[in-house]
């Protein structure tokens, strides 16, 4: 699709500086701009590229002041990054605007399907499933018995949702996500083997949740594993049975949360963080990458780091000493040697007396 600078400015509530009839049909990075493309400048580090870019239109902040002449047409907006992000979202909606049900999909007669849905090839929708309006199920998705999926939700190819789980409105689940596999529940026996504990709960995912590729969320033993509204989970994350994640918490890749731990709202969890089971983490806590959490964190908005993790300011002070550990050991060895010599000298003096 082709858009003029004037049309784009109207969508973004911006002001055109240059040719309002300049047209674009693609998006590009400013350093890789080509004729007919639209780019943006938000980071001052990339400012030199605006004088050499071949992009036809560039979105800039309202206060941008060029130091040299420009070939491209500018669209001035309040925040260039936010404006470009909204354009990307519009573009994505157009690109992913699929509707219709493939003849190669299987839908159980007892399933309820909303209006304007997309269901791709070889998707399987089992008994008593409910799928809301405008939802998209890409090829090879599987929805087990009694699953509920809300409106305007997208499940990309290969998402598997076991029976009895619930997914809210405006959610996105990327390829390879598994919702509702059994929690890791095994009871050790006297003969050293493990007896499986039946996992009969479910997973409840509230609205506006996004889950990255190959992330897994286990069903509860009893009750529900709960992912609250607005949570964002990266790729390759493990969420165990009966975990609860508070609203708007974000977790980066390769992290794991063990069973029955409760994470607060508005948390930020870095990559490769491990959190043991049955803990409570306060609202707003930030956990640095590769940290290990082995106890409750009770103070809201605390920042922790390390394994085991503790307050980040104390961690940084301690780490300075750790990096100088070899020097400190040498100094201690020297002090011990001097003390030993002093002690020997004192003993010799006493013997002479």
Silhouette: flat
Q: In percent, how much strand structure appears in the residues?
A: 25-35%
Largest sheet entry = 12 strands, mixed
Uncertain spans, ≥5 residues at pLDDT below 50? none
The CATH top-level class label of the largest domain: Mainly Beta
Calculate the terminal CA-CA distance, rounded to whole Å: 104 Å
CATH superfamily of the largest domain: Hexapeptide repeat proteins
Helix and strand composition category? alpha/beta
Helix content: 10-25%
Task: Give the domain tally.
Answer: 3
Written overview of the protein:
With 353 residues, this protein is of the alpha/beta class. 18% of the residues lie in helices and 29% in strands. It is built from four helices and 40 strands. The radius of gyration is 29 Å and the shape is flat.
List keywords for this structure.
353 residues, alpha/beta, Udp-n-acetylmuramoylalanyl-d-glutamate--2,6- Diaminopimelate Ligase, Chain: A, domain 1, UDP N-Acetylglucosamine Acyltransferase, domain 1, 3 domains, twelve-stranded mixed sheet, 18% helix
Entry summary:
The protein has about 350 residues and is an alpha/beta fold. Helices cover about 20% and strands about 30% of the residues.
Please render the helix and strand layout as text:
Elements: E1 3-4, H1 5-12, E2 15-17, E3 23-24, E4 26-27, E5 37-41, E6 57-61, E7 73-77, H2 80-95, E8 100-101, E9 106-107, E10 112-113, E11 118-119, E12 124-125, E13 130-131, E14 136-137, E15 142-143, E16 148-149, E17 154-155, E18 160-161, E19 166-167, E20 172-173, E21 178-181, E22 186-188, E23 194-196, E24 202-205, E25 210-211, E26 216-218, E27 224-227, E28 232-233, E29 238-239, E30 244-245, E31 250-251, E32 256-257, E33 262-263, E34 268-269, E35 274-275, E36 280-281, E37 286-287, E38 292-293, E39 303-306, E40 309-311, H3 312-323, H4 325-352
Parallel strand pairs: 4-5, 5-6, 6-7, 8-11, 9-12, 10-13, 11-14, 12-15, 13-16, 14-17, 15-18, 16-19, 17-20, 18-21, 19-24, 20-25, 21-26, 24-27, 25-28, 26-29, 27-30, 28-31, 29-32, 30-33, 31-34, 32-35, 33-36, 34-37, 35-38, 37-39
Antiparallel strand pairs: 1-3, 2-7, 22-23, 39-40
